Here is the input.
Amino acid sequence: MSSQKELLDALLDDVAARPNTIVVFDLDDTLFSTADRHLRILGEFAARLETLDARAAGILRGITRENLRYAIADTAKAHGLDDRLAKDLRDFWFARFFKNPYLLEDTIIPGGPAYAAEVIKRGGRAFYMTGRDEGMREGTEASLLRHAFPEPDGKGATLVLKPRFDTPDFAFKNEALHKIAELGAVVGSFENEPAHVNLFVERFPKGRHFLLETKHSGKPVTPHASVLRIKDFRR
Ligand SMILES: [Mg+2]
Here is the structure.
């Protein structure tokens, strides 16, 4: 079995091997870890809960990166909190998780900025294609710059956001890929959602498509056999 370095290097070789190549990167839980964004929201909810239910507030404050679930309500329930509180937390979370100031809490999946820069250095282009919507552009651009990702200036790197918040991510990506395919040769992609990585495999069967083993929505989808698995972007 090939090492992570070999897998990542092989894609860079493909990028350099011909003109006008494109590599597509998802953002949440692919280039960025959203764990600290979740933790900040948990902390703010706990602060509000303090006078009402100090015990529950204490439990929420004690949650660490490692025991976060994909869905915030599941995180609460896994820590013994009841359904009503989990629902209140879900509503509180939903009102914040997709807001620009909170995006700045994200940290990077190690090696991502250097890898995206290398794609461009080898003559390719990086497309950040995300289920975030246009309302999140400001925070997304600020977060990319803060972590020294290639700037999405439309030349080396391009940021592709959902025009509408309520479009399902899968439908949006399916549509956006038609447009990206007209702009160059998509030689590879990076995703944390099995359903999304499968979309890339089906659309660009000759490419190298990577699944980040971070976390995903839990939808029961098996990645295609050709999908390459990595923990992060370190080579
Ligand atoms: Mg993602």
